[in-house]
Structure formats: C-alpha cells, structure tokens
Amino acid sequence: MIGWVIRSTTRCKISRCFPKNQLCSESIQIRGILSNAVLNRLSAMEERREQIMQEMNSSGRTPVELSTEFSLSNNALTLFAQRQELKEEEQSVKELLKDSSGDKDMKEECLGELRRVSSEMEILDSKIVDAVLPKETDD
Questions:
Q1: Verdict on whether the full-model pTM lies above 0.90
Q2: Which residues contact 121 (CB under 8 A, 6 or more apart)?
Q3: What is the pLDDT at residue 34?
Q4: What sections of the chain are H helices per DSSP?
C-alpha cells in the first residue's frame, strides 16, 4: 500500500510504549487487529514526529504542512499510548483474577472489568488503524 512504512526489524522509538532499542514484535504481544505493519507505521510516525519537532524548534516557525503532519502523527501515538495503558490494566486485572480463586464476587467483578477493557481496546484498535492509514490530500 502506498504510504505504509514496513520494516521487518524496525527499532521502536515510541518511548512511552516500548523499551528503547528493542524490536516492536519482541516488546509487545498484540493479538487481533494491530499487526506488525501497524506497529511499524506507528514507529515511523514517532520518528517523523521527532523530526518535525526538531524542524519547528530550529526554524522558530511552523509551516502549515508540518503542523498538520505533526497533529496526525500525534493523534495516532496518543491513541496507542492509551491502548498500552489499557493493556497494563488488563494484565493487572488478570493477576487479580488469578489471586481471587476463592472469592466469587471478586471473580465476577474481574471478569466484568476484563470485558470492559477488551471492548475499549477493540475500539482503540479500530481508531489506531484509521489514524495510521495514509490520508487523502483532499481530506
């Protein structure tokens, strides 16, 4: 697809989401809609966002094109950071569920929380995919 940046060994620079200097596919296990292509695109967007910030800081002005590109990449990266927070919440609830083997009420509450988190992650996954897709210039 035009506009997709796919690198099989992309070093991830999404500082809030991945440990530095680790491959995306090794640093997070994502099932479902977020493929390695999406993760690679997010990584490329992070790199480009950093370049734009450097350009804006060095020139002292912000051309409209850079501002638009920065906004689009920032949106996708913010959504991904929100997804990562939900993933961490999911892990915490799973650990709590495992520890609450004898408490029926706690188990039900944990299962309900897992359903909520899963539903929110599905919504975010869809928004992330939309955010990383190349935009038409007429949009």
A1: no
A2: 32, 83, 86, 87, 90
A3: 74
A4: 24-27, 36-59, 64-99, 104-132
